[in-house]
Design brief:
By secondary structure, this protein is of the alpha+beta class. It folds into 3 domains: 213 residues, Thrombin, subunit H; 91 residues, Roll (Pdz3 Domain), CATH 2.30.42.10; 88 residues, PDZ domain (Pdz3 Domain, Roll). The chain has 11 helices and 24 strands. The longest helix is centred in the N-terminal third of the chain and has 25 residues.
Length: 457
């Protein structure tokens, strides 16, 4: 027994020495620090400063809040002609000098300066900026740049560890904060026109806009964009644009310098259990078509209110926002296949996206006097004007002929070309017969006056 115990002890000692040697040779990754990963990533994150033209007082206040380097001005007379917008950026192509950032960092910029992690400064050229997605691409002529590896946000999960890197307030360059992915697919926040945000609790502050959100492998998975906070400080609710979405914008900015989106021409609503039951279907995901605009690609393709969109070009659709985001990054004349559920029938419709400006011009040519306004039949017993049966102007689109002619929401149209009108149908009938102009008699509050809408207002 004694000899056996000595043998066992000797065997265990040999095995231990073997594993110790293997451990030293392999040098396993130290999971207690992010330093090795950050050493590779930090040189790709830059500071961005844009000299912008200030056109209003609110812009100045925003810049001052962002910078917090000087007291706020209290009257418009002290507004300087220019200001500095500060943010961050990420080098995504070292050979071409491409730097990805937010569009709102460089909006209305007269000049843009990029400061690298090593302290070098370079004037940057704006390749393109897309305000609806808040993505912009810059170019710097510099050598020895470091680019960041690009990740895949389709693989991202709630709970994944992430790191945010940027320049808070434009002065704390290369600041690193860490956290987790708090949520995915955040939308309807009203921050951007196209929203599919990554939510994170990694601290993001003013000046971080355009900076990097990276995973534990040091791959770029998002562009830090906004925070939800009552006082502009971080409370652990930050949002980043998924890199997969940003890449689709960047590709178009490189090729065309802009994102010329096609229009589908529908209104949408999420499918809820109540709607699914009311539609007498078992579908629990998708987007219900609530409206089809006249003379739109959707109408031409045969889409109808009540159709439920389940996929677009093979991409499953879970809600209305996914339709907006899927279609919103496709260019004019793109051809898509829309799978719909109509009653109990599965249908597939081919749609070619149209140019929204061309459609707008076509609609304006078809109805030059009333295009751009929303109308409602109206009746009122007024102590000033008596018994009124007329047409109420609900809204007026900026830049339209009625808007240029000073027609305003709340106006009541009582006659057109000196013909008394009682409803929208009568108003449109008179407008259709008009040639160069449309004469309206309008009630605005206690006053009444004539207003002329011309074709070339």
């Amino acid at each position: 027994m004694k000899q056996l115990s000595i043998f066992h002890a000797f065997f265990i000692l040999i095995i231990s020495l073997f594993f110790c040697a293997a451990s030293d040779a392999g040098k396993p990754v130290d999971t207690t620090t992010l330093a090795p990963m950050l050493k590779k990533v930090l040189p790709a994150v830059v500071n961005v400063k844009a000299q912008v033209r200030i056109t209003d007082f609110e812009t100045l206040r925003e810049i001052q809040k962002q910078r917090k380097l000087q007291p706020e001005m209290d009257n418009e007379e002290r507004i300087p002609p220019t200001g500095v917008s500060v943010g961050s950026g990420v080098i995504i192509d070292a050979n071409k000098g491409y730097v990805l950032t937010n569009a709102h960092v460089v909006n209305d910029a007269q000049s843009v300066t990029v400061t690298l992690a090593d302290g070098r400064h370079f004037k940057a050229k704006i390749i393109g900026a897309d305000k609806p997605s808040d993505v912009a691409l810059l170019e710097v002529k510099a050598k020895n740049l470091t680019q960041i590896p690009i990740g895949d946000t389709s693989q991202l999960q709630v709970g994944d560890f992430v790191v945010a890197i940027g320049s808070p307030f434009g002065v704390l360059n290369q600041t690193v904060t860490s956290g987790i992915v708090s949520a995915l697919g955040r939308n309807t926040l009203g921050i951007e026109s196209f929203e599919n945000f990554i939510q994170t609790d990694a601290s993001i502050n003013p000046g971080n806009s355009g900076g990097a959100l990276v995973n534990m492998q040091g791959e770029l998975i998002g562009i830090n964009t906004a925070i939800l906070s009552p006082d502009r400080g971080s409370i652990g609710i930050g949002f980043a644009i998924p890199i997969n979405m940003a890449k689709s914008v960047v590709d178009q900015l490189i090729e065309y310098g802009n994102v010329k989106r096609g229009i589908l021409g529908i209104g949408l609503q999420d499918i809820t259990p109540e709607l699914s039951s009311a539609f007498n279907t078992k579908v629990t995901e998708g987007a219900a078509v609530t409206q089809v605009l006249p003379d739109s690609p959707a109408q031409q393709a045969g889409l109808l209110p009540g159709d439920i969109i389940t996929s677009i070009s093979g991409i499953p659709i879970k809600n209305a926002s996914e339709v907006v985001n899927t279609v919103g990054f496709l260019r004019v004349n793109s051809r898509i296949k829309i799978a719909i559920l109509r009653g109990s029938k599965q249908l597939s419709l081919g749609v070619t996206l149209a140019d929204p400006m061309k459609r707008k011009m076509m609609m304006a040519q078809h109805d030059p006097f009333l295009h751009g306004i929303s109308l409602k039949n109206f009746s009122l017993l007024s102590p000033i004007h008596g018994n009124i049966q007329a047409v109420l102007v609900v809204s007026v689109e900026d830049g339209s002929n009625p808007w240029n002619s000073d027609l305003k929401p709340g106006d009541v149209i009582t006659s057109a070309n000196q013909h008394k009108i009682k409803n929208i149908e009568e108003l449109r009938a008179v407008a259709a017969k008009s040639d160069k102009s449309l004469l309206l008699n309008v009630l605005r509050g206690p006053s009444a006056f004539f207003l002329v809408i011309g074709k070339e207002a």
